[in-house]
Design goal:
CATH superfamily of the largest domain: Butyryl-CoA Dehydrogenase, subunit A, domain 3
Radius of gyration: 21 Å
Number of domains: 3
CATH architecture of the largest domain: Up-down Bundle
Oligomer: single chain
Strand order of the largest sheet: 2-3-7-6
Strand content: 5-15%
Mean pLDDT: 89
Distance between the termini: 34 Å
Low-confidence stretches: 56-66, 68-77
Number of helices: 13
Order of helices and strands: HHHHHHHEEEEEEEHHHHHH
Shape: globular
Largest sheet: 4 strands, antiparallel
Number of strands: 7
CATH class of the largest domain: Mainly Alpha
Cofactor: FAD
Catalytic activity: a 2,3-saturated acyl-CoA + A = a 2,3-dehydroacyl-CoA + AH2
Structural class: alpha+beta
Organism: Corynebacterium sphenisci DSM 44792
Keywords: FAD, Flavoprotein, Oxidoreductase
InterPro entries: Acyl-CoA_Oxase/DH_mid-dom, Acyl-CoA_Oxase/DH_mid-dom_sf, AcylCo_DH-like_C, AcylCo_DH/oxidase_C, AcylCoA_DH/oxidase_NM_dom_sf
Length: 402
């Protein structure tokens, strides 16, 4: 059975994340939303604090987050790194999604490293700030269509290709790049490589202007004969046709619950603000009364809160399974799909219920509605998540069900 009571050490970490969100993220949220692409310098202080916590054995998240803590496992505490990362990201995104995505050492590439890197690689790359580069101009959510190539030349791989919509692509220290070792062998040959910034032939082409998460940089990256040590291929270099590219896809089992957590945190912020505004307007929210016996606004709020609760519990389940070494591909996609959809609906409905006040820049409701949309898109759209769940449920391959 799943025990949903959180251990004390997880609650303590979440409380610290909430304090950072309340005291650092929220006060500067609007400032950097209006100053797109300007790096939030205030995050440097938080990064230093987090590095100190990591050195003291209290990792905020980072590359090692997904592996858990061996001492805690020996003590019988199974909820480890994945659950801690999820709870932390919920709290920080309650403060600001873009700030969370801009935090050094907390990139989605770090979760990718935790998912597929060897122990030796985890030791070497554990303190890097890693972005993740998958999407290309020729495809969006279909990760199997990767066309960036990696050719072994002596002790180095030579990478060529273009990556788009890379979160933290300019600011991160390094990027986890998905590339194919052999196009003729299909998706089985797709591997991930850690490419450090400053590598010759690896350039940032431009930054995107966006609807939301404006404080976070989103870059277009180009690899033109970029050479990386062969030891930077994450995981094993063997091409196993039987396993397809399951190793690379395991990355999503770690990152999709985190993106769900981002949507959950942002939606919770909107719900709390909506409730405050409704109660100030004299709206009474009664959990014991049926919907028809309450005002339309109160009934709608209760419905939105129930939707949020469902997304939250699904994300907890996916993270718990990952920490307990259970296959969670379906659960990761389910929680991502549910949270992404719920986050968009909750934040938009909050704007709607608050009328012109919600639509204005007098508070952060309109910003949260803009930020939430990307959380329903990246790491796989609704359609992709539904395909993943359907294929696993029906036992069909990607060729049989498109």
């Amino acid at each position: 059975m799943i025990n949903l009571e959180l251990p004390k050490f997880l609650k303590a970490g979440a409380n610290q994340a909430h304090q950072a969100a309340a005291e650092i993220f929220r006060p500067i949220s609007r400032k950097y939303d209006l100053a797109e692409h300007e790096y939030p310098r205030e995050l440097d202080t938080l990064a230093s604090m987090m590095e100190g916590m990591a050195d003291g054995g209290k990792a905020f998240s980072g590359a090692k987050g997904g592996r858990g803590d061996e001492k805690k496992k020996q003590e019988g505490i199974r909820n480890g790194g994945n659950m801690a990362s999820l709870l932390n990201v919920i709290e920080t995104c309650w403060g600001d999604v873009a700030m969370t995505l801009s935090m050094p050492y907390q990139g989605l590439g770090n979760s990718a490293i935790a998912a597929v890197a060897t122990d030796e690689q985890l030791e070497r790359f554990g303190k890097t700030w890693a972005a993740m580069a998958i999407t290309e101009p020729s495809f969006g959510s279909d990760s199997s269509a990767v066309s960036t190539t990696a050719k072994l030349d002596g002790d180095e791989y030579v990478l060529n290709g273009e990556k788009i919509f890379v979160t933290a692509g300019e600011r991160a220290d390094s990027v986890v790049v998905w590339a194919t070792l052999d196009k003729s062998k299909g998706r089985a040959a797709i591997k991930s490589f850690l490419v450090k910034k400053g590598t010759p032939g690896f350039t940032v082409e431009r930054l995107e202007h966006k609807l939301g998460i404006r404080a976070s940089d989103t870059a277009v990256l180009r690899l033109d004969n970029a050479r990386v040590p062969k030891e930077n291929l994450l995981g094993t270099p063997e091409i196993d046709v039987k396993k397809s590219f399951a190793g690379a896809m395991a990355t999503f089992d770690n990152t999709r619950p985190l993106v769900a957590g981002m949507a959950i945190g942002c939606a919770r912020a909107a719900l709390e603000e909506l409730r405050r505004i409704l109660e100030e307007a004299g709206v009474v929210i009664n959990y014991d009364a049926p919907a028809y016996a309450q005002s339309a606004a109160a009934a709608e709020y209760v419905r939105l809160e129930a939707d949020w609760e469902a997304a939250y519990l699904l994300a907890l389940r996916a993270a718990w399974m990952a920490d307990n070494k259970m296959p969670n591909t379906v659960e990761a996609s389910v929680c991502k799909a549910k949270a992404g959809r719920a986050g968009v609906e909750i934040t938009l409905k909050a704007v709607e219920l608050c009328g012109t006040y919600g639509y204005s820049e007098r508070n952060l409701l309109e910003k949260w509605s803009r930020d939430s949309k990307i959380l329903d898109i990246f790491e796989g759209t609704q359609q992709i998540q539904q395909l993943v769940v359907a294929r696993r449920t029906l036992g069909l391959s990607s060729k049989e069900l498109k």
